[in-house]
């Protein structure tokens, strides 16, 4: 699979699959941080050390076959244009840090894009497994399989007392970051999120926006992940996160039920206003688009809108990002040009849904 194929499709193949509780939990992710023994960590390594490691990883795993993931593609950051890297960030296949501070960075990608292995980001290796819906336990199992697969040829830095050694002390131990992407519009509308967020932080979890650390929670999408990696087993970390996510799912469902029972007319008005704006706007900024798309997805999940598929939020949240808009245009666009193209793309996508229903 070529770079152009990875960046030309907004929806990764794994995102098209159904998963448990997918109306609220859009995706589950497990990431393992690893470093190579006797090689300086990326924050201290020379450019020569990092380049040599990249070549080694590319030689060992680029084009390799995996029993679950098929052929693994190896892509160097140095061989990409800035906007191509931006598209991979928007698809959550690489981090902004790998894109902006490549240091001989690279990525190994599976054909369905559910496996992404970053090379020379903050750590030498970052294994990321993504699944649709609420599937943290399965994501952990798959990540551990890939970890074992790589450890057959690589000697990871490990200490008997501290566990896996990482560049950042907060990752030492298991090196595990487990996270879920949740759509929680009803809790936001009913103003419960302001009370819930501090409670989540007190449980040793962290809540971020759609693109992780430092990003804003747009479109009522929240990434919830563990903070503690040392002193707990991988299974315990995932179990703690799962318990909190299950509570959030129950609270979001209860809030949606309350809105339908007590404010149905207002909800219908909100949802169909957003639908109308998305279907007819000629100019729309990114922040408004994500807000309206969130309303549309809520309307679909609550049964108010029946002729649009739920995956449209996942798809258009990526398709309408600056990188994708410019990739499709084949040129760098001004903010105003992006707003025009975003509006047209959303109109065309919704029109396509209506045409499929008519036929």
TrEMBL record:
Keyword Nucleotide-binding among UniProt keywords: yes
Keywords of the record: Allosteric enzyme, ATP-binding, Kinase, Nucleotide-binding, Transferase
Domain Phosphagen kinase C-terminal: 24-255
Catalytic reaction(s) noted: L-arginyl-[protein] + ATP = N(omega)-phospho-L-arginyl-[protein] + ADP + H(+)
GO cellular component: extracellular space
Modes of activity regulation: Appears to be allosterically activated by the binding of pArg-containing polypeptides to the pArg-binding pocket localized in the C-terminal domain of McsB.
InterPro entries given in the database record: Arg_Kinase, ATP-guanido_PTrfase, ATP-guanido_PTrfase_AS, ATP-guanido_PTrfase_cat, Gln_synth/guanido_kin_cat_dom
Class of the enzyme per the UniProt entry, highest EC level: transferase
Short sequence motif named RDXXRA motif of the pArg binding pocket involved in allosteric regulation, residue ranges: 338-343
Kinase recorded as keyword: yes
HAMAP family registered for this protein in UniProt: Prot_Arg_kinase
NCBIfam families, per the entry: PRK01059.1-4 (NF002194), PRK01059.1-5 (NF002195)
PANTHER family recorded: ARGININE KINASE 1-RELATED (PTHR11547:SF38), ARGININE OR CREATINE KINASE (PTHR11547)
Protein name, per record: Protein-arginine kinase
Biological source species: Alteribacter lacisalsi
Encoding gene (name): mcsB
């Amino acid at each position: 699979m070529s770079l152009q194929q990875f960046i030309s499709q907004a929806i990764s193949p794994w995102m098209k699959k159904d998963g448990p509780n997918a109306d609220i939990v859009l995706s589950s992710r497990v990431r393992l941080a690893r470093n190579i023994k006797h090689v300086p960590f990326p924050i201290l390594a020379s450019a020569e050390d990092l380049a040599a490691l990249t070549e080694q990883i590319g030689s060992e795993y680029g084009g390799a076959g995996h029993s679950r993931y098929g052929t693994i593609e190896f892509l160097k950051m140095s061989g990409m244009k800035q906007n191509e890297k931006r598209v991979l960030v928007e698809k959550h296949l690489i981090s902004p840090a790998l894109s902006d501070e490549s240091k001989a960075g690279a990525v190994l990608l599976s054909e369905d894009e559910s496996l992404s292995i970053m090379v020379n980001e903050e750590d030498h290796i970052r294994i990321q497994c993504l699944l649709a819906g609420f599937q943290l336990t399965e994501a952990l199992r798959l990540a551990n399989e890939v970890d074992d697969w790589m450890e057959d040829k690589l000697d990871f830095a490990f200490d008997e007392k501290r566990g896996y050694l990482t560049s950042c002390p907060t990752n030492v131990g298991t090196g595990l970051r487990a996270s879920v992407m949740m759509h929680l519009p009803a809790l936001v509308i009913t103003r419960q999120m302001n009370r819930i967020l501090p409670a989540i932080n007190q449980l040793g979890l962290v809540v971020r926006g759609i693109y992780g650390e430092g990003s804003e929670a747009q479109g009522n999408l929240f990434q919830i992940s563990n903070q503690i990696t040392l002193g707990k087993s991988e299974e315990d970390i995932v179990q703690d996160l799962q318990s909190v996510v299950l509570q959030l799912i129950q609270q979001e469902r209860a809030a949606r039920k309350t809105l339908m029972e007590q404010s149905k007319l207002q909800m219908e008005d909100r949802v169909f206003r957003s639908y109308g704006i998305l279907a007819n706007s000629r100019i729309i900024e990114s922040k408004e688009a994500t807000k309206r798309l969130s309303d549309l997805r809520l309307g679909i999940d609550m049964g108010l809108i029946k002729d649009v598929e739920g995956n449209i939020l996942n798809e258009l949240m990526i398709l309408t990002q600056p990188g994708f808009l410019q990739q499709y245009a084949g040129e760098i666009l001004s903010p105003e040009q992006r707003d025009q193209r975003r509006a047209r793309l959303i109109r065309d996508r919704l029109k396509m849904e209506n045409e499929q229903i008519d036929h």
